[in-house]
Amino acid sequence: MKFEISKTGCDPASIPDDGNRFLIGNGYMGVRGTLEEFTKKELAAVNLAGIYDQADDGWREPLNAPNPFYTVVSVNGGALRVQDFPPAEHEQRLDFRYGLASRKTVWNLAKGRLTLRAERFASMDNSHLLGLKITLCANADMRVKLEAGIDADVWDIHGPHYSSVKFGEKDGVLICEAAVQSGGTVAVSRNFSLPPDEFMRGTAIYLPELKAGVEFSLSSVCAVYTSKDLQNPAEAAQKSCAGSYENLLKASKARWDEIWDCSLVEIEGDEEAELAMNYSLYHLNCVAPRGGGAVSIAARGLSGQTYKGAVFWDSEIFMLDYFLASQPEIARSLLRYRIETLPGALKKAASYGWEGAFYAWESQEGGFDACSDYNITDVFTERPVRTYFKDKQAHISAAVVWGIMRYIERTGDLSLLKEGGARVIAECARFYKSLLVMPNARKRWEIHDVVGPDEYHERVNNNAYTNRMALFVFDALEKISEILQEDEKLERECGIAALLEEIRPLRENFYMPKPGESGLIEQFDGYFSLEDASLAEARSRLKDPREYWGGSHGVAGDTQIIKQADVATMLAMFPQDYPEEILRRNWEFYEPRTEHGSSLSACMYALLACRFGNAEAAYPFFMKSACAELRGGGKQWAGLVYIGGTHPAAAGGAWKVLAQGFAGLEYSDGKPSLRPCPPRHWKRLRLRFIHEGQIMLADITPGKAELKSK
Ligand code: IFM
């Protein structure tokens, strides 16, 4: 089985995508797959999870820590940076079984050839630690200079976030302490396997005389702590980087072995899909919180400050299922994050005059909604464009309820309900109840003025997805009321019985858009009357490739072109609502009208195609999701706003397609079963997942599907 990706040559245009492809991470931090000599110009970043700062009136965004991998080699005063001094050979690799990224670069110099090798990893065993090993070897004797420091001039989108930076050195360890504008500190240390020739201005300097063919190696163990972790991060950073690189790597590998034990996917007959799927799981594990806290995953993982490092519905609807099936404690952390951020959701609902809990569309610490009223910048006028993501994507609260219900169903662990989950569900139900309106002409309850998953059409009425999710929340309230029958106190505290009394008659008369004669479900009221322009036609109307398609001025706004799976997402999530024929007809209608302008789109079309038994139609969309990083080239801009980075939701979505679609893994009364629908060219699919604490193996070959414990 192949667990490696690689690339040769250095092309400046691919630096942003390579930074994502070769990323290493451990849930606490992500280190972009840039080279040791790279700086903020090449988007080098050590991105930290869950710690934010707002500089002046810029967007509040997560912090990038000073970069302890910063290392430059020079010969005769000339710095060997690939960007300034093109190498004769260059390759980058990632062994994603163990999260070990490496590079080999060869420069032709006047005195001979110099080869620089480096390998790096983020410890899966101790999430504060990183390891880096640099090896130099020349084919002729030469004196080199190696400067190994901590680069505190970090890449920021809306920075600077540090008001001051202090460098020091204690017992041979380099320490950098950066004071965050809004308070607190980030401390980074770097310890070396060899004492340097000297320390100079926060940099360790080595002046080895290389002998032809003899390697010079230097390894570093680096630590990152913040004042969110403990009181004295600098001391913790200094003390914790004392161990050896080799031991750290060994312990980290052992943790990766445990992860693969319950996650590995084997696909005979399709090496490309097998590699892409496992590589997607690698990325999910790089960003998964492992400390048992109340933490979720940002939409761009730990690849930078894009999307303000905020948590979206991506976590519950796209990523959660993989964690539930492999490491339920991580799924629990994601949901505890929503429980802890309930106060923010209550406040947000109240600020719009709604009842209950309206979760942040772009959630940061404490449930703060980082989504700005003007989330796009117009390419022509450079003026901010009013968007309604924050105010109107009401489906976000239902995603939270979906996640909690899924957790309970899969794990049978009700403690989450008692620890605040029941309250969240009740408050979300209260929110949807307060959204209901009864228009004079129609004697039924409806939901108006929302934005569905398709963000290009704003402020629409009766978005089918949103209405279906509201129904789901009302039904979830019924279910938890049954579950909590024994726990009268909790039942009373959440006011569930009284709330149900109010909701039941409304639910009876709630409008859910249904398939018309053609079998099609209208995405929202009036959607079918919009211009039926083709995607090519809409695209030809763009005057700038970075132009925003949505809103009142975008090329999609007055047409049936949609940004991402919307009705398709609803049908993929609730396939039992309709016969397969309806699922198929809606797929065939909506897919050609979908721009797939979000990386969340393809997996839902793939899953839906499996739901009506067409794995061949699903396959290219599955591959698109699973290869989001490998193929790169995803959207980098929304208007003038940079949106590049990794795509954990696409990775999680690919796993959903594989498990729930191709393997057809479903649960009835808590028991797993298989209803496989694999692509024709797959000879065998073996999928691992956790059930009742045991690792299970789904083994699917043509005409045969077996479920056994591993
Ligand atoms: O959550 C998504 C949204 O659906 C489309 N824009 C990007 C967000 C983050 O991935």
Keywords:
33% helix, 710 residues, 5-stranded antiparallel sheet, 20 helices, binds 5-hydroxymethyl-3,4-dihydroxypiperidine, 9-stranded antiparallel sheet, alpha+beta, globular, Glycosyltransferase, Beta-galactosidase, Chain A, domain 5, single chain
Characterise the protein shown here.
With 710 residues, the protein is α+β, with helices and mostly antiparallel strands. It contains 20 helices and 32 strands. 53% of the residues are buried. It has 2 domains: 4-245, Beta-galactosidase, Chain A, domain 5, CATH 2.70.98.40; 261-709, Glycosyltransferase, CATH 1.50.10.10. The structure holds 5-hydroxymethyl-3,4-dihydroxypiperidine. 5-hydroxymethyl-3,4-dihydroxypiperidine is lined by residues 299, 307, 312-314, 453, 455, 598, 600, 649.
Structural topology:
Layout: E1 4-8, H1 15-21, E2 24-25, E3 29-31, E4 46-53, E5 61-65, E6 71-75, E7 78-79, E8 89-95, E9 100-109, E10 112-122, E11 129-138, E12 142-143, E13 145-149, E14 162-170, E15 173-180, E16 185-192, E17 198-200, E18 203-206, E19 209-210, E20 216-226, H2 233-240, H3 245-261, E21 265-268, H4 271-287, H5 314-326, H6 328-340, H7 342-351, E22 376-377, E23 384-385, H8 389-392, H9 395-411, H10 415-435, E24 436-437, E25 446-447, H11 464-483, H12 488-494, H13 496-508, H14 535-540, H15 567-573, H16 580-590, H17 601-611, H18 615-626, H19 628-631, E26 637-638, E27 641-642, H20 648-662, E28 665-668, E29 671-674, E30 684-691, E31 694-701, E32 704-709
Antiparallel strand pairs: 1-8, 2-3, 3-4, 4-5, 6-7, 6-13, 8-9, 9-10, 10-11, 11-20, 12-19, 13-18, 14-15, 15-16, 16-20, 17-18, 21-30, 22-23, 24-25, 26-27, 28-29, 30-31, 31-32
Helix pairs in contact: 4-20, 5-6, 5-9, 5-20, 6-9, 6-10, 9-10, 9-11, 10-11, 10-12, 10-13, 11-13, 15-16, 15-17, 16-17, 17-18, 17-20, 18-20
